[in-house]
């Protein structure tokens, strides 16, 4: 699968309007095959995460950004299905609390980054500080315009210290968002997800796209790249992200820790323990 074409290259600015949210490339018309491939990827990711945890040296940070209904929650569920919850954590960033606002905007972010052996998924992130903050005029331009550089350097720090950083923008269009709002209103089990305030953000769609375009072009770096994921088709979105996560984990070249030096000696001792129980057990009729 060619995932490279979804990468935002630092030297080649993109325009969101040039990218097709309906794209499913070589899987066009092959939804069933795509879903089957995802199942295989789930198993691989599960095993690789086990290895990451066992090795306990490296860290993976996955950043998810999207407009409302863009599929951040669904992606987390589908891509990390079956993974041992002990080594994976989701951090969701909402409107900052007074305590968070009393610090610099990266304070709450840095405290949630992964520890060694851990995968952390950011459901929204520090990018809200150049998105919502910019579009809703929560701070003057003089303040938010400096943040692209802070963010590039903050992510550089994370990477230099051994964290791998992947960033995904889930690209849906206005039509798909309208359909997903309708689904939230029509299905009783989804009603809770409908937030009337989301319609206000929808009304600012154009402004959000400009802000997204700007951040994608300014903060996709060699050390922490952005991918724009066509996301109107949920199954293709899941397949693409799972593929990139799998490939990234493979590229991290983890190894199981070396066993104790005198493994054979312990093996003999423990084998004898087990055999001693077997000797005591009465013969089965
Ligand atoms: P949701 O994730 O849909 O439950 O909504 C969370 C809301 O919090 C979104 O509307 C975000 O734009 C908003 N939000 C997250 N981070 C920030 C931030 N740093 N400043 C302002 N709003 C934010
Ligand atoms: Mg919202």
Describe the structure.
This protein is α/β, with parallel strands linked by helices. The protein has a single domain (3-259), classed as Rossmann fold, CATH 3.40.50. Helices cover 47% and strands 11% of the residues. It is built from twelve helices and five strands. A five-stranded parallel sheet has the order 2-3-1-4-5, with helices on both faces. It is globular, with a radius of gyration of 23 Å. Adenosine monophosphate (AMP) binds next to helix 5.
Number of strands: 5
Order of helices and strands: HEHEHHEHHHEHHHEHH
CATH level 1 name: Alpha Beta
Distinct ligands, ions and cofactors found in the model = adenosine monophosphate, magnesium ion
Features:
single chain, 285 residues, alpha/beta, Rossmann fold, five-stranded parallel beta sheet, 12 helices, globular, binds adenosine monophosphate, binds magnesium ion
Question: Would you spell out the secondary-structure blueprint of this structure?
Answer:
Elements: H1 31-55, E1 59-66, H2 72-79, E2 88-92, H3 98-101, H4 107-110, E3 119-123, H5 132-135, H6 141-144, H7 147-160, E4 163-171, H8 174-186, H9 197-203, H10 205-219, E5 226-230, H11 234-251, H12 263-280
Parallel strand pairs: 1-3, 1-4, 2-3, 4-5
Helix pairs in contact: 1-11, 2-11
């Amino acid at each position: 699968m060619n995932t490279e074409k979804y990468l935002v290259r630092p030297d080649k600015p993109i325009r969101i309007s040039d990218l097709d949210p309906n794209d499913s490339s070589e899987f066009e018309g092959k939804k069933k095959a795509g879903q089957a491939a995802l199942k295989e990827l789930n198993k691989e990711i599960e095993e690789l995460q086990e290895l990451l945890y066992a090795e306990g040296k490296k860290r993976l940070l996955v950043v998810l950004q999207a407009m409302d209904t863009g599929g951040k929650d669904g992606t987390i569920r589908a891509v990390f299905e079956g993974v041992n919850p002990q080594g994976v954590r989701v951090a969701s960033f909402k409107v900052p609390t007074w305590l968070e606002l009393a610090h610099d905007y990266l304070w709450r972010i840095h405290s949630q980054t992964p520890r060694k052996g851990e995968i952390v998924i950011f459901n929204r992130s520090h990018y809200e500080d150049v998105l919502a903050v910019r579009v809703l005029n929560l701070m003057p331009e003089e303040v938010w315009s400096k943040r692209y550089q802070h963010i590039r350097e903050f992510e550089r720090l994370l990477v230099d210290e051994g964290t791998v950083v992947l960033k995904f923008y889930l690209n849906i269009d206005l039509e798909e968002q309208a359909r997903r709002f309708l689904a939230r209103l029509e299905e009783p089990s989804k009603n809770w997800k409908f937030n009337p305030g989301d319609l206000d953000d929808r009304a600012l769609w154009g402004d959000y796209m400009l802000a997204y375009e700007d951040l994608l072009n300014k903060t996709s770096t060699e050390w922490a790249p952005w991918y724009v994921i066509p996301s109107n088709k949920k199954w293709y979105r899941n397949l693409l992200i799972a593929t990139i996560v799998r490939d990234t984990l493979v590229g991290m070249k983890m190894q199981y820790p070396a066993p104790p030096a005198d493994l054979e000696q312990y093996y003999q001792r423990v084998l004898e323990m087990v055999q001693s129980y077997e000797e005591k057990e009465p013969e089965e009729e």
